[in-house]
Amino acid sequence: MVDKNLITPLYEQVANELRKEILCGQYGEYGAIGTHQELAKRFSVSLITIRNAVKILEEEGLVEIRQGKGTFVHRTALVDRLQNLTGISNIM
């Protein structure tokens, strides 16, 4: 969650939390992360903060905003699976 006492801006904290959830597969390949209103309520922040956080994720290619529908995980969001590698031969 967000900590209003930290020096890190709230929108960055929200973006970091959502990024972590997306990369862990919490929402699936096309899952909705929610509307801006739902996210604002969940994180107890303003809509402007949510818009800024979602904009960061959109610029990173992690989410797609559909006007009137919500924000969805972009189907090409990369998932870090490097923890499964045991050596260079596995990469090849």
Describe this structure in words.
By secondary structure, this protein is of the alpha+beta class. It is built from four helices and three strands, in the order H-E-H-H-E-E-H. It has helices spanning 10-23, 36-43, 47-59, 88-91; strands at 32-34, 63-66, 70-73. It has a three-stranded antiparallel sheet with strand order 1-3-2. A hairpin with a 3-residue loop joins strand 2 (63-66) and strand 3 (70-73). Helix 1 packs across helix 3 and helix 2 (36-43) packs across helix 3 (47-59). The longest helix has 14 residues, at 10-23. The radius of gyration is 15 Å and the shape is globular.
Could you say which overall geometry the principal axes of the C-alpha atoms support? Answer: globular
Q: Mind telling me the C-alpha Rg?
A: 15 Å
Structural class: alpha+beta
* Secondary structure tally: strands: 3
Low-pLDDT segments, ≥5 res: none
Give the end-to-end Cα distance, rounded to a whole number of Å.
Answer: 39 Å
Kindly state the mean pLDDT as a whole number? 85
Q: Count of helices?
A: 4
Largest sheet: 3 strands, antiparallel
* Relative strand content: 5-15%
User: Can you give the helix content as a percent range?
Assistant: 40-55%
Spell the H/E element sequence: HEHHEEH
Lateral arrangement of strands in the main beta sheet: 1-3-2
